[in-house]
Amino acid sequence: xxxxxxxxxxxxxxxxxxxxxxxxxxxxxxxxxxxxxxxxxxxxxxxxxxxxxxxxxxxxxxxxxxxxxxxxxxxxxxxxxxxxxxxxxxxxxxxxxxxxxxxxxxxxxxxxxxxxxxxxxxxxxxxxxxxxxxxxxxxxxxxxxxxxxxxxxxxxxxxxxxxxxxxxxxxxxxxxxxxxxxxxxxxxxxxxxxxxxxxxxxxxxxxxxxxxxxxxxxxxxxxxxxxxxxxxxxxxxxxxxxxxxxxxxxxxxxxxxxxxxxxxxxxxxxxxxxxxxxxxxxxxxxxxxxxxxxxxxxxxxxxxxxxxxxxxxxxxxxxxxxxxxxxxxxxxxxxxxxxxxxxxxxxxxxxxxxxxxxxxxxxxxxxxxxxxxxxxxxxxxxxxxxxxxxxxxxxxxxxxxxxxxxxxxxxxxxxxxxxxxxxxxxxxxxxxxxxxxxxxxxxxxxxxxxxxxxxxxxxxxxxxxxxxxxxxxxxxxxxxxxxxxxxxxxxxxxxxxxxxxxxxxxxxxxxxxxxxxxxxxxxxxxxxxxxxxxxxxxxxx
Length: 541
Hints:
Distance between the termini: 6 Å
Mean pLDDT: 88
Low-confidence stretches: none
Radius of gyration: 29 Å
Strand order of the largest sheet: 6-3-2-10-11
Largest sheet: 5 strands, parallel
Shape: elongated
């Protein structure tokens, strides 16, 4: 069985924001004035390679060294590490993606970002004949614990199960990367007995155990797991990096100095997007776009605290934590990526930050939508093998309706034939009996008899309809997950990739799933560079 079951175009049913859909489906033209067209020629890619601007060689060397050492410790392959080292002299190019660290690596969208970056970096390397490193920016300085705490998975029979880090693992404002390994360890101890039941689950167990050995906290753990699943093909940078912040100290200083103008830029672009029928992803308030770190807690800075913020930026920038807008600027200022691989919300951020990039003179990388996909576990894929008229795409848009189709088609042929025969015989007999009553009978008595005959027909219809329960019971006995199909393919009526764990494809597919996912990302990337973007539906061999 091929790992790719289908590809479907992104449309309104994809449940992504309108701007993301519009941009994804207009690759050749982009979304001016906010987002440029995807680069498809060597010349277009070459134009994205800009000389270093405003970054001191010593500061860049410190970032490269820190990135190399962290990547090595978290499992990046040696040949990728060599390319990272070559970034000291500007030889190496970067493709950057990122995500806040979730429980045991986070949801599927995190691994989709990484493999898309891996595939794209390969293509850039071939096009420009320059080493190119896919770099995973672990957003370990983010503090959205509710987004990061949950773990949602599938058992070997494809039935859903879940776990979560307890609320006591986190304090409000605490970076999720700082969470002690004890807490994701509790999640792992809870789910491991179920994972041990997978025939190919050993790869996941080894990857996660190895990640616990390498990591110092939840941020590093999540990054190490994703790098392991990607076969070591990407490097890692931590959003808490002191070297990165010191490298961007002048940018951060300028940002704070021009904070009011930056907010005006963001609000202005937000209004323009809304006037064009899109939405403003970013909203500004009285707080600064930079947090202060105090005793390990990220704290908002109100207008009254701005002098202290400016002083901290200039004297101890490592104690400042960039917000959404500034984080994007810092990342692109320090690493100067030729491309960034982004999800729907992040693409919307980039559109709204167009004027801010221009304000600080930071070149814009190519904005590449990450691969969107739905994973079909082998038990569900096996349903298709029983009936080639079933379309897996129907399971994605109407899971309950797809399950009903399977129930209906699971009725034994002999039972279906007998049901039809019983229905025909009873109805024919009733009709014949009604005709035989003849004339001269009491009209009142005939009315009562005909009413009872109609009732007999209705009862026969009900009895024959009950045969469908045989099909449902037969199907569920064979595929117990069918009543929970929506929780597998569209949990909470949302795309699966937002909540289902990155572990899932590897639990069913083992280590070969790494190559299969990267191959799927290559196909997606090739289509994208040809101006086509598809949603990928895939399974395990």
